Amino acid sequence: MTPNRYINYFLIIVLITLVIYFGRKVYREIFPGDYPMVTPTAESKFIFGENEIIVKLSATTKNGNIIVYTYGPDGNFYGMLKPIKDLSITIRKGDNADFMVQVYGREIGETSFMKKMDRYIRKVGMYDLLIEAVEKKWNYGVQNCLYPICTRCTDGCKSVVSTSNLPLVMSVMDNGEIKPVFRKGRCPRCGKCIIWCPSGVIQKEKQPWEK
């Protein structure tokens, strides 16, 4: 074996060692190992017009999207993903719900996605449903959490925790929105949910000196 071949083998070993070292370092930096904190949803004001509803928001989200939701006559949660522009959203007549989530008190049942690719399998008009929600005093509003379109936080939790009793669960709030809820005693503090949350709902919990 020639000396050059020994040198090549040595350089390959050094390169692999560096990749492993810096790869592990990056992993440690990405997943901070802190308890997660669920941030409150932006305040909203619904302005009802003859053919459209404009929603004014107090803040945007990390990725610029938010879910508008309302409950229907069946008691279930109907939502649509909307982009935020200049801290406002517009729902027009003819806009349909993207999904429906069965709700049982605080618990969540099955999800039905009504929009697939560029067509609706089932059409439920969000404009008309929101008007009805106001009249009949059903819960409606906006939520920063993009569940059930996004489940990255629960997916990350399942990849770390081996049991079905997860520290992170999705739950229905008093105002009807669906958000993640954490049980600290079971949380391994891997930090995946903090990094993976696209809308910034889950963030690093502030330390006492940061509050």
Structure description:
This protein starts with a helix and ends in a 7-residue tail after the last strand. The longest helix is centred in the N-terminal third of the chain and has 28 residues. A hairpin with a 5-residue loop joins β12 and β13. 25% of the residues lie in helices and 32% in strands. The chain has four helices and 14 strands. With 211 residues, the protein is α+β, with helices and mostly antiparallel strands. It folds into two domains: 63 residues, no CATH class; 100 residues, no CATH class. The strands form five sheets. The chain has a five-stranded antiparallel β-sheet, covered by helices on one side. The chain has a three-stranded antiparallel β-sheet with strand order 2-3-6.
Shape: elongated
* Poorly predicted sequence stretches spanning 5 or more consecutive residues: 25-29
Overall residue-averaged pLDDT value? 87
The ordered H/E elements are HEEEEEEEEEEHEHEEHE
Q: Considering DSSP H and I runs of 4 or more, what fraction of the residues is helical?
A: 25-40%
What is the total domain count? 2
Kindly report the spatial arrangement of strands forming the biggest sheet: 8-7-5-4-11
According to DSSP, the number of beta strands is 14
Largest sheet: 5 strands, antiparallel
- Rg, nearest Å: 23 Å
Number of separate helices? 4
How far is the first residue's CA from the last residue's CA?
Answer: 64 Å
- β-strand amount: 25-35%
Structural class: alpha+beta
